[in-house]
Specification:
By secondary structure, the chain is α+β, with helices and mostly antiparallel strands. About 25% of the residues lie in helices and about 20% in strands. The protein is built from four helices and six strands. The longest helix is centred in the middle third of the chain and has 15 residues. The protein starts with 5 loop residues before the first strand and ends with a helix. The relative contact order is 0.14.
Length: about 110
């Protein structure tokens, strides 16, 4: 079992990137294991924040969106806008905290 190299915040060598940094470059980890770890210390005895690093030279390009994937994504986003109670398109994503559209969740406000 090998241990990961640990670097302090902002001190990682070139050639390593987080998932978000890879994505900004149009790359993805592509099945590779975590190559290193970045730690940001915190105060008052709290554990450090950890970010995993991947090797940029082993990263693969992001897979392009196909028409089928675009259609599935559009359908999923549309389903998040449909109120389960009144079955209408709310025009916005239904908050999970309410579970229904605002008029259905707070009918007393709409009556006034």
């Amino acid at each position: 079992m090998s241990t990961l190299p640990v670097y302090r915040w902002h001190l990682a060598p070139d050639g390593y990137a987080t998932r978000r940094q890879l994505r900004a470059r149009g790359l993805r980890p592509g099945g590779q294991d975590v190559a290193a770890q970045l730690e940001r210390p915190r105060r008052r005895g709290r554990p450090p924040l950890v970010a995993y690093l991947y090797r940029v030279d082993l990263a693969k390009p992001v897979r392009p969106m196909t028409p089928g994937r675009w259609a599935a994504l559009a359908k999923a986003n549309a389903a998040r806008r449909i109120c389960p109670q009144c079955r209408t398109d709310a025009g916005y994503v239904i908050p999970t905290s309410l579970g229904t559209c605002v008029p259905c969740a707070c009918p007393e406000q709409n009556a006034a």
